[in-house]
Amino acid sequence: MYRITYEFSFGNGNRKVFHVDLNPDTLILVATELSEKPAWTKLDFRQCPCCPLHKDNHPYCPIALNIARVIDSFANTISHETCRVRCDTQERTYLKNTSLMEGLSSLLGLIMAVSSCPIMQVFRPMARFHLPFSTIEETTVRAVSLYLLRQYFLFKNKQDVDLDLKKLRKHYETIQILNAGLLERIRGLHQTDSDRNAICIFHSLSQLLSTEIDTDLNSLKYLFAV
Fold first, then answer.
1. Cβ-contact 176, 203 below 8 angstroms
2. Rounded distance between C-alpha atoms, residue 225 and residue 221, angstroms
């Protein structure tokens, strides 16, 4: 089992802890079964337009089920509230005083990547090398580098490769549809905005990464200047 732990500590002494346990072979979340599954987690409840799943085989949205506990835990918390977020992986610990929105965005992005959602499976290698609170530049480097590493293994298996990143760009376009679908799914659940704003951050990162690919990763060329 590979565990990543998020701890949110607030000025009033409140503390919330979430364990994200991954199967070390598949990098899929080993989730605890919910005693009661909220109605909004059903697959056909505002289902994402890009979703390839069918309710006969998958009655519940895998991402919705996995984020339900986090969403409910912060139901009465506003997004700009300051907290200390600690992220423990097996290799190191990350700590940051930040907004709840940023901390939640990092946690939700991780859970989304390791859920059994076929759209999100491309991000599972990034989850294994999780970097909380990452900037757009860090996210771009990690996403593109791991995608190109995937192309290397495809090449070694004598399969077609995508060195122009055209498929990656298309994939991020689909991720934007998925993010919009998730926002629609949780719309109106709570009066506060922390969960919605956290997903909005993840949505914005997807849009920015698509832009980076469109511009041939020009913002990263300085790293390799002679």
1. yes
2. 7
On whether the pTM is more than 0.85, the answer is yes
Average pLDDT over residues 68-86: 85
Provide φ and ψ at 60, rounded to 5°.
-125, 145
Among candidate residues 52, 224, 89, the one with its CA nearest the CA of residue 144: 224
Q: End-to-end alpha-carbon separation of the chain, Å?
A: 43
User: How many other CB atoms are there within 10 angstroms of residue 11's CB atom?
Assistant: 9
pLDDT tens for 31-65 read: 887 778 888 999 999 999 999 999 999 999 999 99
Instruction: Name residue 96's amino acid.
Output: K
CA distance 100 to 105: 8
Question: How many residues does the structure list for the chain?
Answer: 226
48 touches 182 (CB < 8 A): yes
Strand ranges in the chain using DSSP code E only, listed in sequence order = 2-10, 15-22, 82-88, 93-99
What is the Cα–Cα distance from 82 to 51, expressed in whole angstroms? 35
> What amino acid occupies position 122?
V
Q: How far apart are CA 42 and CA 55, in angstroms?
A: 8
